[in-house]
C-alpha cells in the first residue's frame, strides 16, 4: 500500500516537471523572431520590412478573376520610372501573389519575387531602359508593366 502511494506520487511529480518543461519551451519558441522575415533574402533587392505603402499595390480580392476588367490587379498596373530607379510592390491582399517577369504564357527569366506573403514587399531596381511586363504566377489575370525611360 505504501509502495503504491510512493509510486503514484513519483509519477505525479514526473508529470508536473514534464509539463513545466514543455510550457517553458513553448514560451521560448514564442519569443524567438519569426524565420519568415529572412525567407526571401536570396532575392537581391528584397526588403523584408512590413510596409503598407509602396509604388505598386496588390489590393484585396485580386486572387479571383475580375480585377483585370477594371485594370486594378496591380495598382497602378503601369508605372514609369527613370533608369536606376526602383519600384516597390506591396501585397496588401490576404492571399499569396508574385511579381514575375514576362507573361503567364511566356515568362521571362529576369526577375521573380517568389510567393509574397500578405504585407510582404518586393523592391527591384531597374538599371536599363525598356518595357518590363510582369504577372502573378498564381493568378494569370494579374498583369502589370514597368516602363523604364
Ligand atoms: Cu496573384
Structural class designation: alpha/beta
Report the average pLDDT across residues: 80
- Fourth CATH level, the homologous superfamily of the largest domain: Cupredoxins -  blue copper proteins
Fold-level CATH name of the largest domain: Immunoglobulin-like
Range of strand content: 25-35%
Number of helices: 1
Uncertain stretches? 13-17, 25-51
Largest sheet: 5 strands, mixed
If strands are numbered along the chain, what order do they take across the biggest sheet? 2-8-7-4-5
CATH top level label of the largest domain? Mainly Beta
Q: How many domains is the backbone divided into? A: 2
Q: What is the CATH architecture term of the largest domain?
A: Sandwich
Describe what this molecule looks like in 3D.
The protein is α/β, with parallel strands linked by helices and 149 residues long. The chain has two domains: 2-32; 42-148, Immunoglobulin-like (Sandwich), CATH 2.60.40. The protein is built from one helix and eight strands. The longest helix is centred in the first third of the chain and has 30 residues, at 2-31. The termini are far apart. Residues 13-17 and 25-51 have low confidence and may be disordered. Copper (II) ion is lined by residues 63, 97, 136, 138-139, 142.
Protein traits:
alpha/beta, 2 domains, five-stranded mixed sheet, three-stranded mixed sheet, globular, binds copper (II) ion
Secondary-structure blueprint of this entry?
Layout: H1 2-31, E1 56-58, E2 78-81, E3 86-91, E4 100-102, E5 107-112, E6 121-125, E7 130-135, E8 143-148
Parallel strand pairs: 1-3, 2-8
Antiparallel strand pairs: 3-6, 4-5, 4-7, 7-8
Bound molecules: copper (II) ion.
Amino acid at each position: 500500500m505504501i509502495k503504491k502511494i510512493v509510486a503514484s506520487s513519483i509519477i505525479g511529480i514526473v508529470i508536473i516537471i514534464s509539463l513545466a518543461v514543455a510550457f517553458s519551451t513553448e514560451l521560448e519558441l514564442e519569443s524567438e523572431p519569426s524565420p519568415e522575415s529572412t525567407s526571401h533574402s536570396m532575392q537581391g533587392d528584397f526588403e523584408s520590412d512590413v510596409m503598407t505603402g509602396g509604388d505598386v499595390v496588390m489590393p484585396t480580392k485580386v486572387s479571383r478573376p475580375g480585377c483585370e476588367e477594371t485594370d486594378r490587379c496591380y495598382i497602378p498596373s503601369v508605372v514609369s520610372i527613370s533608369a536606376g530607379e526602383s519600384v516597390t510592390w506591396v501585397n496588401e491582399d490576404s492571399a499569396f501573389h508574385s511579381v514575375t517577369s514576362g507573361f503567364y504564357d511566356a515568362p521571362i527569366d529576369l526577375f521573380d519575387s517568389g510567393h509574397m506573403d500578405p504585407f510582404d514587399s518586393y523592391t527591384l531596381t531597374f538599371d536599363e531602359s525598356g518595357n518590363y511586363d510582369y504577372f502573378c504566377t498564381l493568378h494569370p489575370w494579374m498583369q502589370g508593366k514597368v516602363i523604364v525611360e
